[in-house]
Write a structure and sequence with these properties.
Keywords: Lyase, Pyridoxal phosphate. It contains 14 helices and 12 strands. It is α/β, with parallel strands linked by helices.
């Protein structure tokens, strides 16, 4: 099955599975799982932060990040399409009583700082206290410019805000810019990193920040049910991913670019950013195309704007099959 629904569908390779089977383990709640400790240390090193915390999921990592930054009745400013506002079941509001203040992003995925400034609440008992600016990098596959990150960081210092980056795919941004992760993460107080998307681990995310912040986050992780025991089996997959699967993200970007070019030859309007391709479909083609592809062992999330995501389990030969079947579908219409 060729699966282009997301880069979350990747499966651990034999080498990653071998690392998991041979992982040294302890009890991470007691802090003595050596493989978890090694993963957290490596994430801290790569991000240039003092500490890191291993969590089961990206949603929990973002939730813990927000809970650690904001008290009840405080707020974070975030994009309308940001994952930790739109796609995480309202967890910050429901579980943390943290008010989101969503704003529209610019075309390039940045949050215009003039809009952000206009949303910062005065110090007045009528308003929630504005505590945090949350950005996402990449967002919709788009890489936030480094100059913007630097400007946003300066902005938050001037307005006494913290800056968090939902960096689920931040390694895609670093690879696209040909920069080390720390060159991006230097412009934030905290960031999350997802291990189970393009990096290919089966589960897991990391939250990085200073030592005091991560110590508070560890308590929130426990409270929200994320305290794992012999988690080194999972952490070993994350370590393998960081050591072996970061630079290969460029292959996903190259494959996405090729896929976009080929879809363009079929007469589709297409855009592509890093490992994501967005193709505009006529409404009458959406359901038939999805059924056609599934009948030929290809999974796509067909919609008027269809997002196709390349990843380590889809090579150029598989994408060639996708194009051939898409062409065959159009010919049959």
């Amino acid at each position: 099955m060729i699966d282009l629904r997301s880069d979350t569908v990747t499966r651990p390779s034999p080498a990653m599975l071998s690392a998991m089977v041979s992982a040294r383990t302890g009890d991470d709640v007691y802090g003595d799982d050596p493989t978890v400790n090694a993963l957290e240390a490596e994430a801290a090193r790569l991000s240039g932060k003092a500490a890191a915390l291993f969590l089961p999921t990206g949603t929990q990592a973002n939730l813990v990040a927000l809970l650690t930054h904001c008290e009840r009745g405080e707020e974070y400013i975030v994009g309308q399409q940001a994952h930790n506002y739109k796609y995480e079941a309202g967890g910050a509001a429901v579980l943390g009583s943290i008010q989101p203040q969503p704003i529209e992003a610019a075309e390039d995925g940045t949050l215009p700082l003039a809009k952000v400034a206009a949303c910062i609440k005065p110090d007045d008992i009528h308003f929630a206290r504005t505590r945090l600016l949350s950005l996402e990098n990449t967002i919709g596959g788009k890489v936030l410019p480094v100059d913007y990150l630097a400007e946003a960081y300066r902005f938050t210092r001037e307005h006494q805000l913290a800056l968090h980056i939902d960096g689920a795919r931040i390694f895609n941004a670093a690879v696209a810019l040909e920069l080390e992760l720390s060159a991006l993460s230097r412009y934030c107080d905290t960031l999350t990193i997802c291990l189970s998307k393009g990096l290919g681990a089966p589960v897991g995310s990391l939250l990085c920040g200073d030592e005091a912040y991560i110590q508070r986050a560890r308590r929130w992780r426990k409270m929200t049910g994320g305290g794992m025991r012999q988690a080194g089996i999972l952490a070993a997959a994350g370590l393998y991913a960081l050591e072996n699967n970061v630079m290969r993200l460029q292959e996903d970007h190259d494959n996405a670019r090729w896929l976009a070019e080929q879809l363009g030859t079929l007469g589709l309007t297409v855009t592509q950013h890093t490992n994501m391709v967005f193709a505009q479909l006529p409404a009458e083609q959406v359901a038939p195309l999805k059924a056609w592809m599934q009948a030929h062992n290809i999974l796509i999330p067909a919609a008027p704007v269809t997002r196709l995501v390349t990843h380590l389990d889809v090579d150029r030969a598989a994408l060639t099959q996708v194009i051939n079947q898409w062409r065959a579908f159009l010919a049959a219409q």
